[in-house]
Amino acid sequence: MDDLERFLEFLYGESEGYVYVATKDTLATNQEWNQSFFQWPTAKDNIYNYITRQQEERDVYVAPALFKGKNSLKSSVQGTNVLWVEFDGQQQIDFQDLPHPDCIVQTSVDTHLHCYWKIDYLDNTDTIDGLNRRLTHYLEADASGFDANQVLRPPLSKNWKHQGLPVTLKHLIDEPVKHSFDSFEAAPEPVAKVIRLNQQMLLPVEELLKTLPLHATLKKRVISEIVVHPHRSSFLMKIAHELAEEGCNHLQIVSLLDYVDDRIKKFEGRRDKLTRLSELASVALLHVSVEEGLQLYSPLDILNHKETMEWIIPNWLHKSGFVILTGAPGVGKTSLALQIMKHLANAESIFSKEVLTETKILFLSLEMSQYELKYFLVHMNKEFKNNQKWEEKVRVLDEDRPLLDYESIIADYCPDVVFIDSLTELATEELKETEARAITRWIRKLRKRYKCAFVVIHHNRKESGLKFKETKLTGVYGSFIFGKDAETILNLDRDDVSGDIALYSLKARFDKKFMIDLVQNENLIFAVKEVGNDSKQAGTTGRGTLSLNLESE
Asked: 543 Cβ partners below 8 Å, 6+ apart?
């Protein structure tokens, strides 16, 4: 018995009914579906022969459920022996508390899978839809694949949408045990109900893009980014999640997804297109509501809460904190940031502020390439050499990438602290209010999701007439937006005439405000200026000296 025969026996077993087989010529202009129905089990040989013949030139699909007659409508579904979900591009699949699937079919590349669970025969279409939908939401699977009359690709066919790649049976348990419905209790009933929409209800996309405060990268993705099979489903799901995270409502998300789908043509020609897009919106909104759900606390709840703030630098930076280092161009912010990284990696004090733990650091150098950074490191290395912790715990990225790419790197590398130089480089347009709000939301989300802190370099406004040490919080670009999220904002200032340097706090949520006079030597190393010492040269024995050890090339 080959894989197709084993698969058909797994789906239908000893049940009786009509097997629905659909084929489609994806190279034809009209791309119409052809429907065929075969009685099971009396015509099982005919089913096998039909699929193996058709797959040579056409895409072939079979319905996991059996039908009452030769009609593919949901009302004609007789029942099913299996539940199923469709994964269409997920890089990682975690079945969490669910049983492992009894059958897995790979439909093209290894991220496109159909998973099946054996159950007692079920003849209620609402229950079939409901259970499949619960599994789809829980596993964040493809929202287009859970209907009772769904058709899916069988093994030993070919995926002509994907250059004729074979559809293969990756896993089929020899003697599957039927799962009770209790086995799927871990997948809860989705809070979001199916919302039926029509084209007349959709909102004007041009107006949405003009009025919604979306990050420019997301706008570009909606307007022009093109993807092809087999990445269309995951692309639509990604956009739905991003729109949900940006605060869009269900109708706004579906309206924008419909616009995107007109371009990438995932659901082109399908009567249930808006239903599928609505389902994507529901999954995304449910995910965000669970992740960012609101909860009310009493004062006693807060006092008894087991988690406490874990400090990296007491009162300056905690393990999911946000610090901004700002200043005018050319004052030495990058040099100071590099020194801070070295001290964080080694758990060494900074300007008399204790560092409590060694930290793993990701540095997104968005203003300087590695060749420009080398200038700083070669100078600093003249004083500080061969620091093992720096080499082990710091990684640098100098590429301009979309925010989602940065998030992927953070998810993979798992840093304790992310340094960004600079905040304005995260914007794809001039840093206006909508861009600033989108960036702060993104940083806030990553701090919560990945339990990491952010130290971000930023720039001050070009204000004339200000003297040395006179910068206020209002002098920081986007001060209101960034100021409310950051716990600590440090300003590095340098007098153009005397060369005097000062570091002082513009905001200190958990600490007293302070001001420190600094000196910087010819190797770019900052140190606290000794009282009564007018020298601009920093000694390596100065109190609180910041340092960077890196072997020069």
From this structure: 352, 527, 528, 530
Q: What is the CATH number of domain 311-528?
A: 3.40.50.300
Measured distance between the N- and C-terminal CA atoms of the chain, rounded to whole angstroms: 64
Place of tokens 């979306």: 214
Residue 523 to residue 178: CA distance in whole angstroms: 71
Sign of the CA dihedral running 467, 468, 472, 474: positive
The pTM of this model reads: 0.51
Phi, psi of 54 (to 5 degrees): -65, -30
Residues 114-134: tens digit of each pLDDT? 999 999 999 999 999 999 988
d(CA 354, CA 48): 72
Share of the chain above pLDDT 70, in %: 85
In a 13 Å sphere around the CA of 335, the CA atoms on its Cβ side amount to 23
User: Are domains 3-184 and 311-528 of this chain identical in fold?
Assistant: no
Angle between helices 273-291 and 125-139 (to 10 degrees): 50
- Is the alpha carbon torsion for 420, 426, 432, 434 positive or negative? negative
- Would you call 30 helix, strand, or coil by DSSP? coil
* DSSP per-residue letters across 250-298: HHHHHHHHHHHHHHH-SSTT-TTHHHHHHHHHHHHHHHHHHHT------
Fold annotation for 3-184: Alpha-Beta Plaits (3.30.70)
For residue 349, give the nearest of 105, 547, 154 by alpha carbon: 547
- pLDDT for the residue 143: 73
Q: Where are the domains of the chain?
A: 3-184, 199-291, 311-528
